[in-house]
Amino acid sequence: MRPPRVAYFPDSFHEVNGVAHTSRNFVEFAQRRDLPFLCIRASGPVARAELFEQRGNLQTLELPRSRTSIRMEKDLHFDPLFWRHARLISRTVRTFRPDIIHITGPSELGIFGAYFAWKLKIPLAASWHTNVHEYAARRLAWLTASLLGSRSGPRLDRQIEGGALGATARFYRLAQVLFAPNEELCRMLESATGRPCHLMQRGVDTRLFSPVHRTSTLVHNSESPLILGFVGRLSVEKNVALLPRIASQLAALTRRPFRFLIIGHGAEEQALRKALPDAEFAGVLRGDALAQAYANMDLFVFPSHTDTFGNVVLEALASGVPAIVTPHGGPRTIVQDGRTGFIVPDEDFAATIATLADDPARLDQMRRSARIYSETCTWDAVFERVYSAYTPLYDAESMSLEGKGP
Questions:
Q1: Are residues 35 and 149 located together in one domain of the fold?
Q2: Interacting residues of 153 by C-beta distance below 8 A, sequence separation 6+
Q3: pTM attached to this predicted model
Q4: Which residues contact 161 (CB under 8 A, 6 or more apart)?
Q5: CA distance readout (Å), 55 to 34, 39, 61, 384
Q6: Which CATH number goes with the domain that contains 28?
Q7: Where would I find the beta strands (DSSP E) of 1-113?
Q8: CB–CB of 242/232 below 8 Å?
Q9: Which helix (H) or strand (E) element contains residue 139?
Q10: C or N: which end of the chain has fewer Cβ atoms within 10 Å?
């Protein structure tokens, strides 16, 4: 049976987030395997022409967002005028003749993908990458607390989260098969949509992210400064407000000096700079610069409760950096508690860090274990499982777009 022809509509591709990171690796996988693959994606909100490229069986169509795009986050936008590209997308999809359309969420790209799957009678696959219902509740928590107080506000937060989940589930119900980065989310999606869900975890480039990129000396004593790293969007849903609390508590728990290395940007950056005057804010890093920054950390501190997977946690482990994460969300499925890091509630982050700060030998052993675990995670294995889940959706001998034009 020939491999399916896949048209992929990612929410984001060039941005700094898990969806974009996974999407770039998905395209690279298709190119390595010479699979028939079309990626239709958006560029930034700048005035420029559409860009179509073809390399072997890989085709990409990049479409500009308009200057009226709504800014959702520092590098995330939604373009209400994206429908101006409808004819070009229709022509490109019909020429490519996909067997399956795969979307990543209810963005303008996801809406287009779902529409053309319905119009052309093509099976639709959808992957869940972001807990948008939890994001909605956390971003509005300040408003509900100020309007209703600490007693009634949380109840409204739960109602907002439930409503957002219900609306998102209705969109995902359009697909015949779903993907999610961990088992808990798969069970939630199957319950909410009645659709089968398969794992679509994340992989890591262990050649790029590696302890060999460390440039600072690894000192095996409790007198050298402990470098605590964070990589990600500096926003409320990442629970970054916990970082200053950790710093304050840690100063009273250990004599070992420490310093935060924070990589990323977002709405909470100025508040963090004020609360952590001794921290290094490196901004957004990519490639070798990011790999070197990871390798020079001693511990990775990731307090998010909403991440569905946590690419950055896996990148830290590959760099030989143990990670401390919360018991909620996807990162806890990556970390082996007590071996490659720790899974602890917010109030125990500082004490856990202090314990490792005063035990360099154990920290060194965890560094080695983190690297060993990461070597079992590859992108090829991730996407091979995705293609296996595609197989029941199409008949390789009969699928065609003939006569299915809009």
A1: yes
A2: 141, 144, 145, 146, 147
A3: 0.73
A4: 133, 134, 136, 137
A5: 9, 12, 12, 21
A6: 3.40.50.2000
A7: 6-9, 37-42, 51-55, 58-63, 70-73, 76-78, 100-103
A8: no
A9: helix 132-172
A10: N
Instruction: Confirm if 358 and 254 have CB atoms less than 8 A apart.
Output: yes
On whether both 180 and 217 belong to a single domain, the answer is no
Among the ranges given (129-133, 207-211, 327-331), the one the predictor scored with the smallest mean pLDDT:
129-133
- Co-location of 178 and 112 in the same domain: yes
Answer for the pair 34, 56: CB distance below 8 angstroms, yes or no: yes
Predicted local confidence at residue 202, as pLDDT = 87
In Å, how far are 49, 78, 239, 390 from 174, measured between CA atoms?
31, 21, 32, 16
160: which 2 tokens? 């907002």
- pLDDT tens-digit series, residues 262-299: 999 998 999 999 999 999 999 999 999 999 999 999 99
Strand partners for 282: none
Number of separate domains in the chain: 2
Pairwise CA distance, residues 50 & 52, whole Å: 7
Domain containing 39: what range?
A: 6-203+380-393
**Within a 13 Å sphere around the CA of 303, how many CA atoms are in the beta-carbon half?**
24
Alpha carbons 36 and 51: distance in angstroms, whole number: 19
Long-range pairs for 183-192: beta carbons < 8 A, 24 or more residues apart: 183/333, 184/333, 185/128, 185/131, 185/308, 185/330, 189/128, 192/165, 192/166
347 burial type by CB count under 10 A (0-12 exposed, 13-18 middle, 19+ buried): exposed
Q: What pLDDT is attached to residue 400? A: 42
Q: Do 177 and 239 share a domain, yes or no?
A: no
Phi and psi torsions of 5, nearest 5°:
-90, 115
Tokens representing residue 383 in the block: 């996407």
Closest CA to 172 of 203, 193, 187: 193
Identify whether 405 is part of a domain: no
Does residue 253 share a domain with residue 128? no
Do residues 123 and 186 both lie within one domain? yes
**169: pLDDT confidence band, cut at 50, 70 and 90?**
confident
Assess whether 26 and 147 both reside in one domain. yes
